[in-house]
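Structure first, sequence second, as always.
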């Protein structure tokens, strides 16, 4: 019978248990993860089960690290996520949060596109630190991703996106995340993708400002290759700003929508 121990195939006898494997291969492991779930009681293993053994506080080798990072994934996710290529248009409140979430789940390639630098006012909702002020957002985010998941291929484009360069920039990705603050830029990107790039899927957002209800932010499938997240009403304007909680909720709707698309789940 074949199982996977820390993502590597291992032949074991029928009836072998998780703790038998632990005692044989890593007796000092504090955490035993079976198919994405931490177990505290011994369990008989089945064909193709995934078992991960972790010792708290131990820094693994690079060869082991990726397997341990994905230990809590749902089985079958990583193989598909690792092959995915996602472009993020804008690295502000939405885009920086989406990038971090996609990095944590291990998307194989992230294309980060933004022309701006990090400013102090960005820090109330964007995934940067004081040390990043003055840095290009593309460089700052690439640095952060390298600290979170060094196994991701990160490409950057420091460019202002318009209808003349969208097709070239996003040619080599499967899914595009629209993460602009500017309504005109949003419309340009969405319309260009829908009209000229029918083989791409775009995940956009509209209506994430203020501190209105969490539950007003929803994910809608507008057409087969177009998803829209937000309440479609709460735009940023004087008296109604952008803040971390609601922006992050919408961004993670976008990130989870991307994950669902990668996994073949096309409905919301």
């Amino acid at each position: 019978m074949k199982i996977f121990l820390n993502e590597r195939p291992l032949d074991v006898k029928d009836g072998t248990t998780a703790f038998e494997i632990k005692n044989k291969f890593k007796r000092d492991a504090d955490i035993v993860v079976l198919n994405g779930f931490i177990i505290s009681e011994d369990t008989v293993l089945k064909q193709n089960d995934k078992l991960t053994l972790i010792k708290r506080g131990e820094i693994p080798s690079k060869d082991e690290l990726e397997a341990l990072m994905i230990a809590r994934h749902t089985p079958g996710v990583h193989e598909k996520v690792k092959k995915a290529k996602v472009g993020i248009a804008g690295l502000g409140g939405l885009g920086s949060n989406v990038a971090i979430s996609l990095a944590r789940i291990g998307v194989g390639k992230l294309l980060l596109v933004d022309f701006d630098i990090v400013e102090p006012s960005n820090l109330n909702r964007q995934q940067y630190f004081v040390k990043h002020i003055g840095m290009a957002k593309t460089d700052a985010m690439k640095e952060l991703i390298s600290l979170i998941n060094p196994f991701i291929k990160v490409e950057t484009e420091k460019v202002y996106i318009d209808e003349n360069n969208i097709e070239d920039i996003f040619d080599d990705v499967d899914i595009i995340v629209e993460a602009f603050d500017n309504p005109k830029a949003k419309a340009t990107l969405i319309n260009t993708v829908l009209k000229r790039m029918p083989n791409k899927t775009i995940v956009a957002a509209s209506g994430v400002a203020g501190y209105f209800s969490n539950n007003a932010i929803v994910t809608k499938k507008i057409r087969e290759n177009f998803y829209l997240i937000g309440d479609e009403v709460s735009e940023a304007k004087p008296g109604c700003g952008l803040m971390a909680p609601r922006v992050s909720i919408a961004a993670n709707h976008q990130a989870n929508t991307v994950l669902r698309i990668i996994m073949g789940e096309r409905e919301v």
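Margin note: The chain has two domains: 2-73, 78-262.
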